[in-house]
């Protein structure tokens, strides 16, 4: 199932027009990835062979391969994001390994901040992931709480010292309504949180959920000069 948030209907071939938009973003240096999983529904990888089959499908339909039924048209996406929040924790490393076997495919993940992540934690140990944007929200034991950054900073240090990814990002809600908990006011982020974590060699920046909320709040504009 492809969820494009109501922008178009992939099942009637109605999303191929997004190809020009994707290419426009890429021309500006913006990486465009397809995210797998999410917080709703049931999904899993059943076996090593299943992982191989899924990787082949993704390569041919969204990445550098060829297919007569590419849902997003001829645009070649830059990689695959693993937002695994349920189902099974098995064989995601196999899928990442098969995808990495193709040329120039970025592999990223969006785990929850409790360490290790229950669903994608084993796969993250593989060293196959380029970027990891950890969700430091909806998880009180490892997120910001009013007046306190200690839990978040401790969790950040554990992630950056334990996961062999190129860069790790601080994942945050872009507005108070974007998540159940964990929102950090922009002034607190720039004055307290970022100075406490930017010293890490693996610090990659800030990930926001989501662009929809960011447009409403202007959060990214208020922090970008500090990131």
From TrEMBL:
Residues annotated as domain GH18: 1-227
One Pfam family here: Glyco_hydro_18
Coiled coil: none
EC number: 3.2.1.14
GO biological process terms on file: chitin catabolic process; polysaccharide catabolic process
InterPro entries hit by this protein: Cts1-like, GH, Glyco_hydro18_cat, Glyco_hydro_18_chit_AS, Glycosyl_Hydrlase18_Chitinase
One cellular component term from this protein's GO annotations in UniProt: extracellular region
Subcellular location: Secreted, Extracellular space
Catalyzed reactions: Random endo-hydrolysis of N-acetyl-beta-D-glucosaminide (1->4)-beta-linkages in chitin and chitodextrins
PANTHER family, per the entry: CHITINASE, ENDOCHITINASE
Similarity comment text for this entry: Belongs to the glycosyl hydrolase 18 family. Chitinase class II subfamily.
Protein name: Acidic endochitinase
């Amino acid at each position: 199932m492809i969820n494009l948030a109501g922008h178009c209907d992939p099942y009637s071939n109605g999303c191929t027009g997004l190809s020009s938009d994707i290419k426009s973003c890429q021309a500006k240096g913006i990486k465009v990835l397809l995210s797998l999983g999410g917080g709703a529904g049931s999904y899993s990888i059943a076996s090593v062979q299943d992982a191989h089959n899924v990787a082949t499908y993704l390569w041919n339909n969204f990445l550098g391969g060829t297919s007569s039924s590419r849902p997003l048209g001829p645009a070649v996406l830059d990689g695959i994001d693993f937002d695994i929040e349920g189902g099974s924790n098995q064989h995601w490393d196999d899928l990442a390994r098969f995808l990495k076997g193709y040329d120039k495919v970025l592999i990223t993940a969006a785990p929850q901040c409790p360490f290790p992540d229950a669903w994608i934690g084993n796969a993250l140990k593989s060293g196959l992931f380029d970027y990891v944007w950890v969700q430091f929200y909806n998880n009180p034991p490892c997120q910001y709480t009013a007046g306190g950054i200690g839990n978040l900073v401790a969790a950040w240090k554990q992630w950056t010292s334990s996961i062999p990814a190129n860069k790790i990002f601080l994942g945050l809600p872009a507005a108070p309504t974007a998540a159940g908990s964990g929102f950090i006011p922009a002034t607190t982020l720039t004055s307290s949180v970022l100075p406490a974590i930017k010293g890490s060699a693996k610090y990659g920046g800030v990930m926001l959920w989501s662009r929809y909320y960011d447009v409403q709040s202007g959060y990214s504009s208020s922090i970008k000069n500090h990131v």
